[in-house]
């Protein structure tokens, strides 16, 4: 190469170009060359080995942990220094043996290799993952990537172990949140009604109302169903109502609105009356004014019981063809209408709680609003009277919560919601080590959400019970259990990854 013409000028700013530039400048290596691919493959296999060893040896690892804790406690109490041998089948031992058998685990040389190793550690969890190839793979890959990303961000610090564990455990929660948000957006765009799990096992309030109306129409608009009731049966009803009125202290000069009602009932035995005719009198009893409402309620119940108990001997004919199913259909109609009214009461409490929660979009805020709403219902003796004993107990459970919920609420106080709770959790957590505050805050948050979920579960069970009966509540529980087990499968990857990560100290042995 020719000399640089500017080199002879010592003070010339271009003198630096006098150096030899004949050799080609080395090109930057590709970010993902064959060496990286090899590192990724070998790291992934190493991670898979650690994950399998950790998962297979999990019982032994748990046994070692318990033995170590108990031995340490005994040594502190006695002043001794007893050391018990560990399990020969723990994850650490199995991983060490596997490492020795293959000449030592491969150490990742690149960041991509570190991600591959972590994915390998999580991979055995796919065995217990959700159904379907893609969800099963995602249940391992997503938590692994989240865990490694958190580990990379805190690499070399005391927070790294906690960050890796937190990333793995929070990943499924984030995926679930994204799925639910996506489903909510899709429902909003499609304007389709949102169907709850309760709707899958029990009729909705509108469906109950429609069913009751259809059954009433079947009797009222079909002469074949409108049976004629005997005078003897109607006489029994008249005597029963007269007895109720006497025991109530009925006074025509005081209970003026009830006079018309009782007179109509007293006249029923004089002529054969149809089923529809008695039903119209029953409806009249339900509409008495506030002053005579107590008496009207007793008479309404008496007529309802009378109609429910009608048998073939009480029916002497029909207005149309020989069809005696009218009383049964009318009973079904009243039951459907009664169930609809109870369901409306429950839904009213739920809707009011949703409004009360308002801008407080937290799960805990909705939980408190629900419990206060059902506490108000439980204190209302008049409204509670319409529910069965089993339904009343379910309402009280929704209002008070279970003992487990109470315990979780206490633990939920560890969740950080402001400077005071944050300071308390931080001070208390430091007693358990540097990562203690993070662990306690996580426990508190999980407990708070668990308590709120328990309230929602109680409300759902109550709704199913009122709208569909005990069988609907049982079906709902079965569906929720199956869904919970399916959701737990999404933590198969994180579980395997954590025990695999615990095996990493034996790398290279």
Annotation keywords:
509 residues; mainly alpha; 3-stranded antiparallel sheet; elongated; disordered C terminus
Describe the structure.
- With 509 residues, the chain is mainly alpha-helical.
- It is built from 21 helices and 3 strands.
- It has a 3-stranded antiparallel beta sheet with strand order 2-1-3.
- The protein starts with 33 loop residues before the first helix and ends in a 7-residue tail after the last helix.
Write the layout of secondary structure elements.
Layout: H1 34-56, H2 58-78, H3 91-101, H4 111-122, H5 133-153, H6 160-190, H7 197-201, H8 205-220, E1 227-229, H9 231-248, H10 256-267, E2 273-274, H11 275-286, H12 293-308, E3 315-318, H13 326-357, H14 363-378, H15 381-384, H16 389-400, H17 403-412, H18 419-429, H19 436-468, H20 470-489, H21 492-502
Helix pairs in contact: 1-3, 1-4, 1-21, 4-5, 4-21, 5-6, 5-21, 6-21, 8-13, 9-10, 9-12, 10-11, 11-12, 13-14, 13-19, 14-16, 14-19, 16-19, 17-19, 18-19, 19-20
In short:
With 509 residues, this protein is an all-alpha fold.
What overall geometry do the principal axes of the alpha carbons give? Answer: elongated
Strand content: under 5%
Order of SSEs, N→C? HHHHHHHHEHHEHHEHHHHHHHHH
Question: On the 0-100 scale, what is the average pLDDT?
Answer: 76
Distance between the termini: 54 Å
Count of DSSP-assigned helices: 21
Structural class: mainly alpha
Q: Could you give the count of β-strands?
A: 3
Computed Rg: 37 Å
Q: Strands of the biggest beta sheet: in what spatial order?
A: 2-1-3
Q: Pick out the low-confidence regions.
A: 20-29, 505-509
């Amino acid at each position: 190469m020719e000399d640089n013409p500017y080199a002879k000028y010592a003070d010339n700013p271009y003198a630096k170009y006098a150096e030899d530039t004949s050799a080609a400048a080395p090109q930057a290596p590709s970010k993902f060359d064959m060496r990286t691919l090899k590192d990724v493959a070998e790291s992934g296999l190493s991670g898979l080995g650690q994950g399998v060893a950790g998962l297979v040896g999990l019982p032994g690892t748990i046994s070692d942990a318990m033995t170590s804790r108990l031995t340490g406690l005994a040594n502190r109490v006695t002043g001794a220094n007893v050391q018990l041998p560990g399990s020969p089948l723990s994850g650490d031992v199995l991983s060490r043996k596997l490492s020795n058998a293959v000449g030592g685990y491969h150490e990742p040389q690149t960041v991509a290799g570190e991600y591959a190793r972590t994915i390998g550690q999580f991979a055995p969890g796919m065995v217990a993952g959700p159904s379907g190839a893609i969800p099963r793979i995602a249940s391992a890959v997503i938590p692994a990537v989240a865990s490694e990303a958190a580990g990379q961000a805190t690499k070399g610090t005391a927070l790294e172990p906690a960050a890796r564990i937190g990333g793995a455990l929070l990943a499924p929660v984030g995926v679930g949140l994204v799925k639910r948000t996506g489903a909510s957006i899709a429902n909003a765009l499609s304007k389709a009604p949102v169907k709850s799990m309760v709707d899958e096992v029990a009729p909705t309030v509108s469906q109950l109302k429609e069913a009751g109306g259809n059954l009433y129409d079947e009797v009222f608009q079909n002469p074949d169903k409108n049976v004629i009731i005997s005078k003897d049966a109607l006489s029994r009803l008249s005597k029963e109502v007269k007895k109720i009125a006497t025991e109530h202290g009925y006074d025509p000069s005081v209970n003026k609105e009830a006079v018309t009602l009782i007179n109509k009932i007293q006249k029923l035995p004089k002529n054969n009356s149809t089923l529809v005719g008695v039903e119209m009198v029953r409806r009249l009893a339900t509409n008495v004014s506030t002053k005579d409402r107590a008496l009207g309620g007793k008479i309404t119940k008496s007529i309802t019981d009378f109609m429910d108990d009608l048998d073939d001997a009480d029916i002497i004919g029909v207005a149309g063809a020989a069809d005696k199913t009218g009383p049964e259909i009318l009973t079904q109609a009243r039951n459907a209408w009664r169930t609809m009214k109870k369901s409306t009461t429950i839904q009213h409490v739920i809707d009011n709680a949703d409004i009360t929660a308002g801008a407080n979009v937290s799960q805990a805020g909705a939980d408190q609003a629900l419990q206060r709403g059902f506490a108000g219902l439980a204190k209302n003796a008049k409204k509670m009277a319409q529910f069965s004993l089993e339904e009343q107990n379910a309402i009280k459970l929704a209002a008070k919560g279970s003992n487990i919920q109470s315990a979780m609420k206490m633990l939920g106080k560890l969740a950080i919601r402001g400077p005071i709770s944050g300071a308390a959790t931080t001070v208390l957590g430091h007693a358990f080590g540097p990562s203690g505050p993070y662990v306690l805050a996580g426990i508190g948050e999980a407990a708070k959400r668990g308590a709120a979920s328990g309230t929602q579960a109680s409300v759902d069970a109550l709704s199913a019970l009122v709208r569909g009966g005990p069988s609907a509540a049982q079906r709902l529980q079965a569906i929720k259990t199956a869904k919970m087990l399916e959701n737990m499968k999404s933590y198969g990857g994180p579980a395997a990854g954590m025990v695999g990560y615990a095996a990493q100290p034996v790398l290279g042995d």
